[in-house]
């Protein structure tokens, strides 16, 4: 077991934890902006209660995302000194732009959003919420720009093994960035909608907060019914981009060993990397060419066309991709069934609500497996086709990396276990009545701040 392998394992562990919380925060921030906008229009208690309930959830998720992100960035200097020295001229500024634009914007308005309800006007508070939501999206922009550059590097010159930016527009808007950014953002929105719908379904099963939960469940399933087809279209564009720019990754995702036309779509198989063949394959003739190349007789390169030391692992991208796609269609089916039952007035059947509850983690699992496809499929390169992962690793003692990995596992399980426990407690409490702003004697609100609780669907 080498220091490089342990460093890769440590980074994979940390980033797998980290990506879940920003994905949730991105979706929740926009959800909060929507809830407060509705409250500004309707001025009814249920919408205010929902806003403050999800605001507490957002605060915890945002905090855990920040903590895990800081720890992750430290590893560039400790475990990946080769990468920092070679690509720091490109990656460093991109991460700095994220801090200067997104993080400062979020930090500026987060305090107003969390603690300014009684201190600022309604519109100012709504503006702060919108700025935090915008900050999460800007942060996603820069992080995806940096990661996409590592997938499809462009706009640089290489001198003495060091990357120097030559054209920042090409660096940022590299070939994979225009499709990977919306794919990630939509994935975050879908993951959040699954949580919102699942929590709402759980309350309905328990007979709690019926009016609020009914409204948010309908919003979640309507949103998913619209957005998941868009995500499928974006995913298809992402697949075409991988076919053009990362053919070895595509070959691993599809477990294609031989270059051929009229490629079948492999629904399931057991890839045997030693024999360079698939066991127990279930194929649909020619459908692979149609989906992967948009041509009936399109050609897909096989792994045998690449040198053995330039092939990515096959099993992880192959199975992860199918889990991601399978969950995507399962979520779409859940939403479409919900629309049909909503139309018939049978939305709240117990079996359907239980299905929502069971599917709560599905969005996060899809995001995580999609990330594994992207990162493992890029191997053995840290900068695709230019710099190997082995060249990026620091020269550390195996014992040192083993100790840091064990420390991360213990600390993360402790801290984030406590965070998840607190989130569960917040969910159990639910959207109880939120604090009402005290209005000064000389102020008269334009519309009443409190109306009957059952007015959420009026």
Describe the protein.
There is one protein chain. This protein is mainly alpha-helical. It contains 14 helices and six strands. The strands form three sheets. It has a two-stranded antiparallel ribbon. A two-stranded antiparallel sheet has the order 3-4. It is globular and about 65 Å long.
Give the SSE map:
Layout: H1 3-42, H2 45-78, H3 81-115, H4 122-151, E1 156-159, E2 162-165, H5 168-172, H6 177-206, H7 210-245, H8 247-254, E3 265-272, E4 277-284, H9 287-293, H10 315-344, H11 350-358, H12 362-377, E5 381-383, E6 387-388, H13 389-392, H14 398-429
Antiparallel strand pairs: 1-2, 3-4, 5-6
Provide the helix percentage: 55-70%
| Total helical segments | 14
Sum up the overall morphology in one term: globular
Query: What oligomeric state do these chains adopt?
Result: single chain
Spans of at least 5 consecutive residues with low confidence = 439-455
Instruction: Assess the beta-strand content as a share of residues.
Output: 5-15%
User: How far do the termini sit from each other?
Assistant: 63 Å
Rg for CA atoms: 24 Å
Helix-strand category = mainly alpha
């Amino acid at each position: 077991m080498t220091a490089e392998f342990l460093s890769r394992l440590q980074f994979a562990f940390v980033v797998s934890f980290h990506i879940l919380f920003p994905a949730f925060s991105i979706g929740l921030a926009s959800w909060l902006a929507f809830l407060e906008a509705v409250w500004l229009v309707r001025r009814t208690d249920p919408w205010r209660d929902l806003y403050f309930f999800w605001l507490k959830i957002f605060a915890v998720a945002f905090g855990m995302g920040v903590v895990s992100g800081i720890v992750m960035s430290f590893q560039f200097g400790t475990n990946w000194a080769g990468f920092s020295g070679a690509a720091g001229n490109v990656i460093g500024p991109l991460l700095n732009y994220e801090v200067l634009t997104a993080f400062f914007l979020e930090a500026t308005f987060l305090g107003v959003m969390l603690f300014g309800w009684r201190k600022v006007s309604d519109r100012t508070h709504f503006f702060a919420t919108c700025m935090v939501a915008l900050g999460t999206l800007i942060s996603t922009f820069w992080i995806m720009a940096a990661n996409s550059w590592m997938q499809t590097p462009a706009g640089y010159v290489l001198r003495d093994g060091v990357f120097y930016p030559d054209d920042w527009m090409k660096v940022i808007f590299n070939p994979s960035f225009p499709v990977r950014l919306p794919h990630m953002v939509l994935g975050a929105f879908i993951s959040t909608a699954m949580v919102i719908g699942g929590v709402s379904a759980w309350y309905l099963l328990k007979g709690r907060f019926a009016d609020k939960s009914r409204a948010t469940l309908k919003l979640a399933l309507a949103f998913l019914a619209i957005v998941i087809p868009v995500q499928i279209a974006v995913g298809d564009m992402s697949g075409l981009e991988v076919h053009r720019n990362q053919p070895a990754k595509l070959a691993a995702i599809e477990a294609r060993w031989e270059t051929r036309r009229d490629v079948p779509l492999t629904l399931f198989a057991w890839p045997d990397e030693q024999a360079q063949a698939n066991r127990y394959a279930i194929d649909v003739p020619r459908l692979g060419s149609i989906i992967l190349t948009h041509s009936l007789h399109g050609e897909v390169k096989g792994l045998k066309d690449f040198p053995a030391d330039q092939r990515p692992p096959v099993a992880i991208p192959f199975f992860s991709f199918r889990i991601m796609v399978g969950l995507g269609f399962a979520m779409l089916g859940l939403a479409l069934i919900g629309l049909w039952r909503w139309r018939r007035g049978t939305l709240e059947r117990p079996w359907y609500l239980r299905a929502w509850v069971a599917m709560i983690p599905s969005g996060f699992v899809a995001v995580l497996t999609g990330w594994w496809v992207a990162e493992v499929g890029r191997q053995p390169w840290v900068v695709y086709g230019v710099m190997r992962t082995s060249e990026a690793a620091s020269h550390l003692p195996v014992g040192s990396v083993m100790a840091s990995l064990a420390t991360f596992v213990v600390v993360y399980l402790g801290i984030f276990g406590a965070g998840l426990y607190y989130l569960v407690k917040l969910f159990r409490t639910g959207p109880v009545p939120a604090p009402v702003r005290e209005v000064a004697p000389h102020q008269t609100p334009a519309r009443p701040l409190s109306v009957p609780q059952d007015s959420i669907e009026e």
